Amino acid sequence: MGLDIRWPIGLMFTLIGVLMTAYGALQSASATIQVAGSSVNIDLVWGVVLMVFGGGMLLGAIAGGKNPPKA
Amino acid sequence: MQPIELHQIDYSILIAYVAFVLGIGWALARYMKTSSDFLTSARSIPTWVTGLAFISANLGALELVGMAASGAKYGIATAHFYWVGAIPAMIFLAVFMMPFYYGSKARSVPEYLKMRFDERVRALNSLAFAVMTIFASGISINALAKLLTNLLPWQFDVNLGFAHLGSYDCYLWICSVVVLLYVLKGGLTSAIYTEVLQFFMIVLGFAPVVYLGLKDVGGWHAMNHSLEAVATNPSAIYIKDPGTTYAANAWTSAWQPLLSGSAHNPMGVDLFAMVFGLGFVLSFGYWCTNFLVVQRAMAAKNMTAARNTPLVAAVPKMLFPFLVIVPGMIAAALMTMPDKNYRIPPPIVSSAKYDAAVAAVQSASVTDLAAADQAVSAALGKKIDPDKINALVTANAGSKLSGADIKKGLYNGIAENDYDSVILSLVRKYCPPGLLGLALTALLASFMSGMAGNVTAFNTVFTYDLYQAYIAKGKTDQHYFWVGKAATVGGIVLSIAAAYFASMYNNAMDIIQLVFGFVNAPLFATFLLGMFWARTTGTGAFIGLFGGIAGSTLFHALTTVKSNLDPDGHVVNQMKGGYLGVHAIFPSEMAQNFWLAAFAFTACFSLTLVISLATKRTKSDADLKGLVYSLTPKTVDHNQPVWQRPAVVGVILLICCVILNLIFW
User: Is the confidence at residue B350, as pLDDT, over 60?
Assistant: First the structure.
């Protein structure tokens, strides 16, 4: 099929990653969880992981040479 | 179940996911020009995509919920469903069976059966499969609608004039319409692409929950140490009845407790039932013959890609226990740590019953705690932990507790666990806004994908194996293209009807799953003989299949499980067998299921063998070329790079699987 699945995967996870990172940075108190005596701003950390994953997928799609579908 | 408080960030993630799956459907719509594009993806999809879809088609939300539940109940031995009950069968499919499915140009598993045997075998398989996919799809969407009704704060009450829609109805219809839209636009490709999306959602949505849970219990070794306490006294966290005890490694070793016999492992399963029943019959029957998963491999772009599809899938499948079973083990470990303030949620009890139990605590006397325990247990309709209820009654007598505090005490004092709530309870515990939206969206994605996967398998079997074969032969491709689309709409409508059926009767799901078991158990014997013994005849296969189904039904009617007998030896619940007499008693339902599968396989295999020898072959060797192993030129892989040769990759994966079994021996 003409649509490279890496485009929607990459775009979606980059978007979710940006949302979570922004939330983790701006709402640090509610994005932080206490686990085993230490604090983890999990939204900030995981948001970055999602952005890296999404970005990797987008790079793969670009390298694959197929353009995203036209609207 | 308390509604979960969602924030804007959570809604944004949920909406983004729904928008992307609908967008994928729309983006693919332009490529849907023939029935083949719509129903079989025109055999054009790359291996890594079909591989991940292959695994995702099986990774429904019910599996996620069920495996976490089993992780708490049985520990790491649950991984047998992966390392024994999946990987060997997936490798066998790739190396030995895919060449026939893909090489025969069959568009479906029932069509392969028609080519190999005759129309009767195809009709039996396609009808049974069509009915099962509809019910499986209905069960999935029913569970999703119930979950959303209980979890989301939005409650609906819509009066359409001719019908009144409550929250359950609205969630059921909204989710079904979303699935309908993207499948109707992009067909099988749409379902496969969203399955890949779902795969990443689940991995990336649940990995942080596992990480945080493990960190909270003090790491892997600390968790195992806590589980040793669970094994020696499982009644302390209400997993088994008081007095039951196992060796300290019962929750942390996969094989040692199994080798000690069915009485010495929490699954209550013996080695033969595990290896032959699960590892051979059920596993090979599911992974090698179920069109829902095989269809993903058949959509691959060429033979090599098709054969490598189950192998690509085997890699994450091998590692999934750490994602789906470990959460259950974490939950069991957390329950042994009072400072963590966690319990596996008890079964849902109505507010009215809680109110009655609160009243029983308030009126209880500290001089007769046994009577108080009885009154509370009767009011709740559940087993209770006498120590906790006694402490609650005493505390209330000392300083009058509020109704809410007593309710909390009662919640913790119920001595039963609702294991299906394990995964959600951990999501609640460890996910702040944002991560919560991601995890819940992953759950929603797997429910919707469960429906889409079944509907796309249904529309292909309906169009090619029922409509084209028996209702309207020789029409144009455009005609079948539109029938495929109509079958998609019909499949969704029937799934909604099946969901209502499942929601109306408490034991509807149990009955359906029981019947699935009867129909599926003997199927692999038919394929094994058909693919590897040219002498197998259509009549032998047809009667053998019927015999296997009848055999499994009879086996169930004549056996039951220990817990299903009252003190006088009478059967309590006929759904657990024994309704025609009790000739064998198994220690657990799992053991009964594994033995049933072994019996059904043996019955089908023997009958097919004997009848084939007694009947004339109707297909010549030439007819069977490409369909039977000994009559088909072997696929040559020497021109492929080593890492693309299924036999080589299969052996490597098998070695990895053995190593995992040894690590968790």
Answer: yes
Indicate whether B379 pLDDT > 80: yes
> pLDDT tens string for chain A (71 positions)?
678 999 999 999 999 999 999 999 998 888 888 887 888 899 999 999 999 999 999 999 998 876 555 54
Mean pLDDT along residues B576-587 = 88
Any A CB within 8 A of B197 CB: yes
Question: Residue B574 has which token pair?
Answer: 């006929």
- Let me know if residue A34 belongs to a domain: yes
Nearest CB to A2: which of B13, B31, B434? B31
Task: Tell me chain B's radius of gyration from C-alpha atoms.
Answer: 26
Closest-CA distance, B433 to chain A, in angstroms, reads: 6
Distance CA B556, CA B597 (A): 10
A39 in any annotated domain: yes
CATH of domain B8-27+39-336+425-503+634-663: 1.20.1730.10
Tens-digit pLDDT profile for residues B366-378: 888 899 899 999 9
Quickly count: other Cβ atoms within 10 Å of residue B568's Cβ. 5
This prediction's pTM: 0.90
Residue range B451-478: mean pLDDT, rounded: 92
**Interface check A64 vs B, CB under 8 A:** no
A28 and B CB contact within 8 Å: no
**Percent of residues, chain B, with pLDDT higher than 90:** 61
Q: B432, A8: Cβ pair inside 8 Å?
A: no
Q: How many CB atoms lie within 10 A of CB A53?
A: 19
Whether residue A43 is contained in a domain is answered as yes
> What is the complex's ipTM, to 2 decimals?
0.92
The count of domains in chain A is: 1
Amino acid B641: pLDDT: 85
Q: What is the 3-state secondary structure (H, E, C) of B587-621?
A: CCHHHHHHHHHHHHHHHHHHHHHHHHHHCCCCCCC
Which amino acid appears at position B188 of this protein?
L
Q: What are phi and psi of B578, to 5 degrees?
A: 80, 15
- How near does any CA of chain A get to the CA of B434, in Å? 6
Q: Is residue A70 part of a domain?
A: no
Are the beta carbons of B662 and B253 closer than 8 angstroms? no
What number of other Cβ atoms are within 10 A of residue B219's Cβ? 12
Strand partners, A32: A41
Packing angle between helix B119-151 and helix B61-74, nearest 10 degrees? 80
User: Has residue B380 got a pLDDT over 50?
Assistant: yes
Q: How far apart are CA B514 and CA B575, in angstroms?
A: 8
Domain that holds residue A40: 6-62
**Closest partner residue to B434 among A2, A43, A69, by Cβ?**
A43
The answer to whether B9 and B434 are in contact (CB under 8 A) is yes
Q: What is the DSSP letter of B414?
A: B
pLDDT of residue A71: 41
Q: Which residues contact B454 (CB under 8 A, 6 or more apart)?
A: B133, B134, B136, B137, B140, B292, B491, B495
Domain ranges of chain B: 8-27+39-336+425-503+634-663, 346-416, 510-633
Q: B405-408: long-range contacts (C-beta < 8 A, 24 or more apart)?
A: B406/B358, B406/B361, B406/B362, B407/B354, B407/B358
Show the tokens assigned to B159. 């009066």
